Amino acid sequence: MHYVSLIVEFLRGRPAVVFWTAALSQAALWVVVPSVFYSAPPGEVPVVLAVGHAFRLGSYLGPPLAFWLGEMAFRIAGIYGVYLLSQACVVLALWAVFTLGRAIVGTRHAVLAVLLMTGIAVYNVPSAEFGPAVLALPLWALALLHYWRAVGEDRRGYWFLLGLYLGLLLLTSYIGIVLVVLLVLFTLASERGWRALGHIEPWTAMLLLAIVVFPHAAWLRTSWPLVLNTILEEGLPNSLPLPAVWLAVTLLLTHAGVGLLVVLASGWRKRERERAPEIDRGPVEPAGRTYVYALALTPALAALALAFWFGRLGPLERVGPLVLLTSLAVIVAAGDRIYLYRENMVSTAWVGLLLLPPLLVALGTLLLPWTIAYELKVGQPAAAMGSFFADSFQRRTGKPLTVISGDPALSSLIALSAPTRPDVYFAGQPERSPWTSAAALRESGGILVWRAIDTGGAPPASLKAEFPELVPELPRAFERPVQGLLPLTRIGWAMLRPAVPPH
To answer: Is residue 94 part of a domain?
Structure first.
């Protein structure tokens, strides 16, 4: 008698339970691990919150929605609220892929597609770095789902939701333009799409999309050089192929876990007469198959073409939205009967892909400072720095700290951690912080910070040129929560006292 594991029985009998268990387990891990082991937010989260703190219609980083939601989550529940928001985005994206899969390949194969997504690296460690790329995940996935509802299933009421989600996607990241163009081309290339255009709902959806993006579009009309300059400055320079090659390698490597699971389950080099449990489904209609293949492959191909043509990555650097349907495409290609060979090895590998990344992150934050003396960005003493500079300004001036400037990453981190949540002024690039200015900093007073490379703590020449009146203080040394073999974090700083009003 062939033994069938409990996991396979659940896949057959309770597939929705398997989905929610997998999705919520991954989300819980990536809320708990950063909350417990990070003493500073990962990635660009401090800058995201510094920009979102001003609630502008746009910024040098692009559309505003992710910055607004990040700031609101932080005001409600602190940095833990931001981590929770990140994982809510991931879970909602997985649910949308699962729901789309149920409509095309059935519930059990849809669960297999979501389980395969655990092997896509961009949905693990980087998912804690809330920003436009993370918020784009659920909006992209929901747009794919509701386009299929509207066109593939001819349920015309879903056009309105599609227009809303595409509008919100464009308010989140310019990468949404790729999806809008691809959906338009897919509509024009399919018989069902042409039929749908004969009704009023698609045109109403386009109007709704335009209404949603209009405020940012009005801002962009006068501010597009700011956004364009940011993309040009932060791209890989000088050689057109390099960004495209980098993107291609990233797309391949991020699917390494999927490749491992597929190889183990495929029966490659299996023993003769080796049996395997099967997970079956009904036939997939050709339109659904074409839709999944097209929307799984063309976003990545379009991104590669854009990266090659412009020689810059811009919002394409974070590939999460581009690979939302690749696992579903693998399941569609696998056929109506999927045989799970080596089910114990597959289960072990899947659990490893789920648990190993957060485990390595947790161990890395604890052990790397003690072994190779490597400084982790998430190991910075953010709380101590925020409290010190806010308290120093308050004690010396009798006023709360309202503006901070200097090193952009450092000042954003301190602003996030300071009790008064000061505005960040990007010294040397004032156009990036239109919510304040050097004149406002001099008027209200503030703190200037930079990385001190020696005990003298001399300020950078560019900062001294913009604020010639600054007088450096003795650098302040901070001990990290996990100090290990690392030197103390030494911060150079200066205080600008509030301007004295004329009598």
So the answer is: yes
| Orientation angle between helical segments 45-52 and 65-105, nearest 10 degrees | 120
Task: Classify residue 338 as left (phi > 0), alpha (psi -120 to 50) or beta.
Answer: beta
Residue 258, domain member (yes or no):
yes
The overall average pLDDT reported for the chain is 90
Residue 503 located in a structural domain? no
pLDDT recorded at residue 22:
93
Domain end marker among 310, 332, 364? 364
Confidence band, pLDDT 50/70/90 cuts, at residue 312: confident
Residue 465 lies in a domain: yes
End residue of a domain, out of 331, 364, 397? 364
User: Which token pair is 258?
Assistant: 């999927």
Q: How far apart are the first and last CA of the chain?
A: 96
Are the C-beta atoms of 96 and 145 separated by less than 8 Å? yes
Task: Count how many domains the chain has.
Answer: 2
Residue 393 contacts by C-beta under 8 Å, 6 or more apart in sequence? 399, 400, 401, 445, 446, 447, 495
Tell whether 321 and 464 lie within a shared domain. no
Beta bridge partners of 472: 494
DSSP sequence for 97-124 = HHHHHHHHH-HHHHHHHHHHHTT-GGGS
Residue 345 CB partners (closer than 8 Å, separation 6+): 264
Average pLDDT of the residues in 75-100: 97
Strands (E), 331-475: 337-339, 403-406, 423-425, 446-451
pLDDT band at 5 (very low <50, low <70, confident <90, very high): low
> Percentage of the chain surpassing pLDDT 70?
94
Alpha-carbon distance values, 43 to 216, 363, 378 (Å): 25, 18, 8
- Please say if the pLDDT value at position 238 is more than 60: no
Query: Does 284 lie in the same domain as 230?
Result: yes
Q: Residue 142: what pLDDT?
A: 98
Say yes or no to pLDDT of 302 above 70: yes
Q: If we measure between CA atoms, which residue out of 341, 319, 396, 435 comes closest to residue 71?
A: 435
The tokens describing 235, both together, are 């791209």
Residues 409 and 324 in one domain: no
φ/ψ of residue 468, rounded to 5? -60, -20
pLDDT digits (tens, 9 = 90+) for 408-458: 999 999 999 999 999 999 998 999 999 999 999 999 999 999 999 877 888
- Name the residue with tokens 């974070």: 318
Q: Residue 501: CB partners within 8 Å, gap ≥ 6?
A: none
Provide the residue range defining the domain that includes 443.
Answer: 380-496
